[in-house]
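Why does this matter for the project? Reviewers at the last site visit asked to see concrete outputs rather than summary tables. In response, this paragraph embeds two records directly. Each consists of the residue sequence and, immediately after it, the corresponding structure tokens. Nothing has been edited or filtered.
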Amino acid sequence: MAALRGDLARLLGKRTALEKEEAKLRTRIAALELVVAPLPVPEGVTPPAKVNAHSRYGGRGSLNAALLAVLRNAGHQGVSTLVIRQAVAEHFDVPAESASEREYLRELVTRRLRHLAKDSLVEQLPSTDPSKTNVVRYWRIAGKTGPTLGDLQRMADAAVSAEGASEPGDI
């Protein structure tokens, strides 16, 4: 019962935010119509009634770019789908409190990763236990079999800092 009340409160908060956004959009449309109305329209051209802009995740290609950035930072060992989902949720401020929101985020990330894999940009690492179907999947940039220069630099920095922390004669 408390969970349902929590979901209701969250939805009412979203509704209020959407109503505020609607009011802003209506104001912008009215202002633009005042400016655009006097402009002549060329013959044979009918302006579109509406256009579905790609702005949900920062514009066209932003979600793919964010996914690829997470995978590039992960290095050759790859990163789990769970970590990728958390990064996407934080980066784009996607809510993930309720079960339905988490499911939406899971489907969104998985669908995008599969499209990127189809385009040979990323690859899913083989499962350690192929007999299990409900396991955490790991992804990496396609064709990345060895460490990158960035990976080598991080390993060198770690070795230097570890060497500096040891006492002389601890060889």
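We now turn to the second protein, recorded in exactly the same manner.
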Amino acid sequence: MGQQVNVYRELKFYPGATVSGAPGQGLGRTYYVNNVTGTSGASGLSWRHAMAEPSEAITASETYRALGQGQSADTTNDYIRNTIIIQGTGRYDNPYAAIQAMPLHCNIIGLGDWPCGLGEGMVVIGDWESADDAISNEDNTGDITRGCNLYNLHVSSYAGTGYSAMKVVYMYRSRIEDCWFGQNVAGGAVPINAGIECTGSFSGNLVRHCIIGQRNGSSAPNIGMDMVFSGSGANNLIEDNIIFGTVTGILCTAGTNWEGSVIRNNTIGGILAQCTSYGIVAGTGVLIVNNYITAADPINSAAAGEMIGNIIVDDGTGGTLTEYARS
């Protein structure tokens, strides 16, 4: 039986005193999601009472965060970090529904297999029969996402013109790691726009160890990362990814602010071929370092001194390798 000490006024620690043991989960909550054993309307606070869809957990997380530790009298702490854990239950024929409102200051963790291919056991987000992007923030207040960390998710869009696996307007200070973004084999042969698309600002984000713009069928996204916006692309780190785009790998708006951002150690190309247009179209001030690129125009709009040690396959066949630097 555990022991409990209640302190109502003050607890003093004298020099040399230590505190040991696990601190617990902190102020935030953990929500559990399982679309096989979970139930719509459940609390989500344990696997026994798991919710059925991520959208339910996101709604609960936002409600709890806005209350500040869940206390209706305390509305000042909006920065509690909750965690949503999603059980891997299948493959593309057993997906979780699309997410149209992303949580703020929250971790979304896929508890499943490495999210590539068509195998069972992955956490698959996005129903290929529903005409929508698999993850978006279109229902967020002001279309803004802050501090939303995504891990180990297979994000698969409806196959249709203009859709993307993940489409955001404004995204700040978030981490995207060990995820797959593309279109589904079951959705048909129409290529989607992009693996990841942003239309407003994408700043202060980490994108690492992802496969972006991949296909599970005959068609692949036109663009790996579509970053065409007039806002800021500053202070991002995009590293160690595999980025596919039949037309362009990473497409930024030339002249937009990408100062402090680094694109490094990525493999960028088309599917079984080079990108037909560009490998990277760069914003202003981004450093492009040690990438392997196969494209008709490997690096476009980058200034002298912003390209270091990139390896280019000039002809798209693997026949010509050159270190790429351009003034």
